[in-house]
Amino acid sequence: MLSPRFLLLRSAVSLTTRSLATTGGKAPDMSDGNPLLHVSNVRNRLREIVGASTNWSDHQQAMADRVSLSNMLASSQSDLPAKSMKDSRLEVHLPLGSEPTLREKYLTFHNTVRFGRILEDLDSLAVLISYSHTYNTELKRSPLSIVTALVDKIDMRQHTIYPDCDIKFTGHVTWVGKTSIEAKMHMSQFRDGAYAPVLDATFVMVARDPENKRAAFVNPLKPEGPDEERIFQEGEANKVRRFELSGASLLKVAPTDEERKIVHSLFLNTLDTKTVSFRSRVLPPNSVWMEDAKLKGLEICHPQERNIFNRIFGGFLMRKAYELGWANACSYGGVRPKLLAVDDILFQRPVDIGSLLLLSSQVCYTQDNYIQVRVHSEVFDPVLNQHKTTNVFHFTFQSDKEVPNIMPMTYGESMLYLDGKRHFHQTVEQ
Questions:
Q1: Reduced to 3 states, what is the DSSP secondary structure of residue 276?
Q2: 160/228 Cα distance (integer angstroms)
Q3: Which of 167, 288, 312, 377 is the most exposed place for a label (fewest CB within 10 A)?
Q4: Could you read off the pLDDT of 86-110 as tens digits, one per residue?
């Protein structure tokens, strides 16, 4: 059943009604209605809004020229006109069924769609939606630098994404703070004569000055009608929830009484009954030490993967983290896993071009046939020999068979276990 949020959005951005009869996975041609935004044009549109160039040398100069736009920033949010949700509504098409040459970019060896590519498209769309909300017709270029701060949630409604059926992305702004924007997106795929929902995604964006150094104000959001008011209140609730979860982080506070009992139980289950020593540990049957459930990777960040602000594209980071996490879950479970959810991707700092990006995936929690994977990314400076965390990713996978139990050995691994357990239950309980 479609959620009320999806129904509201679909009714607002639905295609001009025409015969749905079609062949294969090709959606009906709607070229006689409003112009459709092709997925390949999203980043081109973003370059136009910001004033970026596709050429590397020209792009550097364009970014330097953006400094002069600082005087166009609003001194307070009250100086900006309120916008409605319909001002930011967008519909973007990914015609996998109609364009075989485009399909190659999204195709896996097993004739499925590369979900990492979908993450890239969602990230670009979230930025464009946010710029649509802040759009000022009087300005040729936007003085705002809008970047992804957090991927709050991506929930899969359909596990199979067909490589030869057209895809449609729809989305709009659902909540606005003083300098932050929540954008919700929905992805559906055309099959058997109609679009069916595939996933729902919630991104949190932040606006900064032209040099991307300090926060900048964005237009307030004015809900129109009870449905939009409900959506806005959900966004407010999401903000409160994120604040509470951040305050309860295991990096800040001790585990709960129940969680401490879980850690102690795991410890007791791994004691060597022959020696009964705190140091002697034995792996229980059908279990894997957490230390043995890692997979690492390295990426050299080339200019080709830059975003419109001369940093590494957030969608590229998500794609690489997802693919590493998926490979780890596949290796751990012994079969190709299905993605259930992407949860709480935090962008702590940007990644500069030329960086050495280290990715480390860890199976941190398992239950029945579910695998929770955490991917940590950091940049490494070989000259200063320094590591700095840039992102943390959380993925929930489902295997076709029951998987071994993951077992922590150290206190740090026990905290990873509890953190993975929290993320897993947040996913399955929603």
A1: coil
A2: 31
A3: 288
A4: 999 999 999 999 888 889 889 888 8
Query: What kind and span of H or E run contains 313?
Result: none
Judge residue 26's burial from the number of C-beta atoms within 10 Å of its C-beta, 0-12 exposed, 13-18 middle, 19 or more buried.
Answer: middle
Q: How far apart are CA 151 and CA 342, in angstroms?
A: 8
* Conformation bin of residue 39: beta by default, left when phi > 0, alpha when psi is -120 to 50: alpha
Distance CA 427, CA 378 (A): 25
Confidence of residue 315 (pLDDT cuts 50, 70, 90): confident
DSSP at 33: S
Neighbouring CB atoms inside 10 A of 326's CB total 23
3-state secondary structure of 416: helix
Spatial distance between the Cα atoms of 243 and 322, rounded to a whole number of angstroms: 25
Q: How far apart are CA 173 and CA 209, in angstroms?
A: 20
Q: Is 314 exposed, middle or buried (0-12, 13-18, 19+ CB in 10 A)?
A: buried
Among residues 201, 169, 173, 202, the alpha carbon closest in space to that of 187 is found at 169
Please give the helix or strand (H or E) that residue 92 lies within, else none: strand 90-94
pTM of the model: 0.83
Paired with 288 in beta bridges are 406
pLDDT digits (tens, 9 = 90+) for 168-209: 999 999 999 999 999 999 999 998 889 999 999 999 999 998
Mean pLDDT of 234-245: 86
Are the CB atoms for 121 and 168 separated by under 8 Å? no
Q: What distance in Å separates the CA atoms of residue 164 and residue 132, rounded to the nearest whole number?
A: 30
Residue 34, pLDDT > 50, answer: no
213 and 159 Cβ atoms separated by less than 8 Å = no
Phi, psi of 168 (to 5 degrees): -130, 130
